Amino acid sequence: MHQPSFVLHDHRRPRPHFDLRLEQGGVLRSWAVPKGLPSTSSEDRLAVAVPDHDLDHLRFEDEHKSIADIGWWEDVGSNDRRLLFVLHGQRSSVRYALIDTGRDWLLHRTKQQP
């Protein structure tokens, strides 16, 4: 069974932010997350959808972009307005929700964790 990949890039240009990329449908769906992933369930973070990237971008690094975490992700209950998923990274597994607000997205760390 194929486990879809994810990568979290620490991106330094044009301003410091993180890029969350989830493999889906043969591409990396991508969101820019200016303040990084939330560390508790009491905070939400803005996530701005950006154009999809090719799968070869999974391990891409340069002088402005490094890999903060990489692994696979698991869909645990998505619908048309929300992606509910677990990131299985190098050090831990964390459950998040990406919620489509109609304008941008909110990234939320769920109370229930794996």
What can you tell me about this protein's structure?
The protein is mainly beta and 114 residues long. It has one domain. Helices cover 0% and strands 55% of the residues. The chain is built from no helices and 8 strands. The protein has strands at 5-11, 17-24, 27-33, 44-53, 65-75, 82-88, 93-100, 105-109. The chain has an 8-stranded antiparallel β-barrel. It is globular. The protein starts with a strand and ends in a 5-residue tail after the last strand. The model has no long low-confidence stretch (mean pLDDT 95).
What are the key terms here?
114 residues, mainly beta, 8-stranded antiparallel beta barrel, 8 strands, 0% helix
Separation, N- and C-terminal Cα atoms: 20 Å
If you compute it from the alpha carbons, what radius of gyration comes out, rounded to the nearest whole angstrom? Answer: 13 Å
Q: What is the structural class? A: mainly beta
Shape descriptor: globular
Q: Would you spell out the secondary-structure blueprint of this structure?
A:
Elements: E1 5-11, E2 17-24, E3 27-33, E4 44-53, E5 65-75, E6 82-88, E7 93-100, E8 105-109
Antiparallel strand pairs: 1-2, 1-5, 2-3, 3-4, 4-8, 5-6, 6-7, 7-8
Short synopsis of the structure:
The protein has 114 residues and is mainly beta.
